[in-house]
Write the C-alpha cells for this entry.
Amino acid sequence: MKIPKIKFNFNMALLFLFIILFIVIASLNSAFLSPDYLIGVMLKNIVEIGLMALPVTLIIITGGIDLSVGSNLVLSAMVGGIVAKQTSSGIAGLVITLTTGVLCGLLNGIIISKLKISPLVTTLATMFLYLGIARGISTGDSVYSYKISELLGTTNFLGIPIQIYIYIVFAIIFTLILSKGILGRELKGIGLNEGATKYSGIDTDKVKIIIYVMSGLICGIAALIWLGRFTSIKYDAGMSLALKVVTVIVLGGTSILGGYGDMKGTILATLIIALLNSGLTVLNIPIDMQTIVNGLVLVTSLVVYSVLNERAKMKRIIAVKTSEITEVASALKT
C-alpha cells in the first residue's frame, strides 16, 4: 500500500509556524499552557477580529476592501446600546445593532457597485463617516452594555466562552461559501476578471452588495460581543481594528490584488495573531517589541507565500510545456 504524499502548501506553512511559535512560547512560560489562559484569554480576545476577517476575506478576493469595519462595529454597538437603554429592551438593542451593521455594509456596497467608486476610497470615507456619527450620537461619552450583549460577551458554556462557539459556526459557514458554494467561484471570477465574469451572465454588482452586507452583519454581531465583553465602548474604540483585520487576511495568503484567497488560511492566521498577542504578553514583552515581532511574522509569511506561489507557477508552466511536447511528438509519429 502506497503512503499518500503530503502536498506542502502555504496553509501547511502557516500551521507549522503556529506549532513552532506555540512550542517556543510554552517552553519559555508554562503558564501559557493553562486552559483558562488559552481559551479565556488567547482565543477570547481575537474573536471580534477573527469574525470580521471572514467576510472581508471574500471582499478582498473580489479586489475590494472594507476599511470601515472598525467604525461600523463601534457605531452599531453605540446605536444598539443607546436604544436598549432608552427602551429598556435588550431585544430592541439587538435588532438595532444588527440593522445598523447591515445598513452600513449596504451603503458601502451600493456606493462601490452602483456609483463605481473605488472600494478603498469608499470605505475610507465611510470609516470616518461612521466614526463621526458615533461621536455625535454619544457626545463623546461611553455607551454601556445591556443584558443580551453581556450574555454574548461573558457567558461560558462547558467552560468555553460562547463567542468562541459563534466564531466556529461562522468560520465553517464562510469556509463552505468560499470552497463549495457558487458564490465563492463568482467572487474569484470578479477578482480575476470582472468584465469577463459580468459578460458570462453573473450580476457582479449584486454579488458585491451581498458581500458588503455580509460584512456589515458580522460587524453587528462582533459589536454585540465587544460591548458585552468590555461592558462599555467609546467612539474611537475601533480605529485600529480594520488594520488588524487586513493584517490577518494578508497573513492568511489572500491576494490583496484579488482573484485568490483561502478561508482556511484566514482562520490559521487568526490563530497565529491570537497566539502572538497573548504569548508575547505572558512573556512580558514590551508592546513596542510585540509590534516588531508581529511585523516580522507578517513579512516572513509574505516571503514564504511569494516563494511557494512562484514554485507552483513554475510547476504549472513545466506541466503545460511537457504536455505540448508530448502532443507534438505524437503528431509527428502519425
